[in-house]
Amino acid sequence: MRENPVEVLTGAAVVLAAGGFLFYAAQATGYAGPSEGLRLSASFRSIEGVSLGTDVRLAGVKIGSVTGTALDPATFRASTELTVTADVPIPDDSSAVVASEGLLGGTFIEIVPGGSLTTLPEGGEITDTQGAVSLLQLLLQYVSGGNEEGTP
């Protein structure tokens, strides 16, 4: 049995392409292992739509990702671990907001920088947070006339 060089090259190209897709999928979903950078924490009322690998953005530019999520049983809040690039100084009075790219877009965490000259250290916590806003709750509130009881 003799191998055709064209078939061998085609098979090698397919294996390389599959490996590239697997590497990209691991990077995009956050399963590529621990990333380097500054680790921060934040506690949200709701992180609906946020998962491991979700972008962390500042002024619309990706500066990191979500590397951990957990429920704090004492406060019933969602604790998140964020890893951001160490070369971007984050003021210690900054806030973190769970934002959406639009009605059908993805969710990300937006860092809104504060005015402090002191920056967050490794392991620092962003205390000013705003959780995800449920589109369904907003629609129900609009249909009910804006009050919580649902009566006009």
Automatic annotation (TrEMBL):
Which residues does the UniProt record annotate as the domain Mce/MlaD? 37-114
Q: Name one Pfam family in it.
A: MlaD
The record ties this protein, via InterPro entries, to: ABC_MlaD, Mce/MlaD, MlaD_Phospholipid_Transporter
Q: Which GO BP annotation is one of this protein's?
A: phospholipid transport
Entry superkingdom: Bacteria
Q: What is this protein called?
A: Phospholipid ABC transporter substrate-binding protein MlaD
**NCBIfam families from the entry?**
OM_asym_MlaD
Record-linked PANTHER family: INTERMEMBRANE PHOSPHOLIPID TRANSPORT SYSTEM BINDING PROTEIN MLAD, INTERMEMBRANE PHOSPHOLIPID TRANSPORT SYSTEM BINDING PROTEIN MLAD-RELATED
Where in the sequence is the signal peptide annotated?
none
